[in-house]
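Example 3.2
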Amino acid sequence: MISCLLTLALLGEPKIVTRQEWGARPPMIQHKRHWPVKLTIHYTGVPQKPEVSLEQKLKNLQLWCQREDKLASGKTKPAWPDIPYHYYISVDGRIGECREPIYVGDTNTEYDPTGHLLVVVEADDKSEITEAEKASLREMVVWLAKKWKIPAEALGTHRDYAKTECPGNINAGMIPELKQLIAKSG
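Structure, written as tokens:
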């Protein structure tokens, strides 16, 4: 664990595929601004697709997010300005930049994401996150917590704030470890 902490502390900013690099369209409208004070982990809720590139996943997600659509529950999702999350971790561990952290994310559940920095991991209820995803999640959480001065106790999951299964299996064991990494790296 100590060598993991030392490695994370020395790495600095993770390699992140920028919006420009993945070909993002501009947000449809101006976002509501905020200052992140919490770090919240989500999962995509769809099966992992290792055969699809991170860039294509983000393009597809942005297209879906920027239109009104029906959810599996039958509820209608409004068109959002952009991808609801701030960062996306793909099944291969690659990280994509989504919405700028200074803008509030969006949700299909009943919680206010104002103040939440949202990181989503590609997984659903039936899949375990990969070792590559775990490594990137560790790196991102430590880096974001340091950058935004978010304390370990302000790390949570979507289900901590809303009635949801999100983030599935990610919560089992990883959250205490991530909190410990934040606490020891600060």
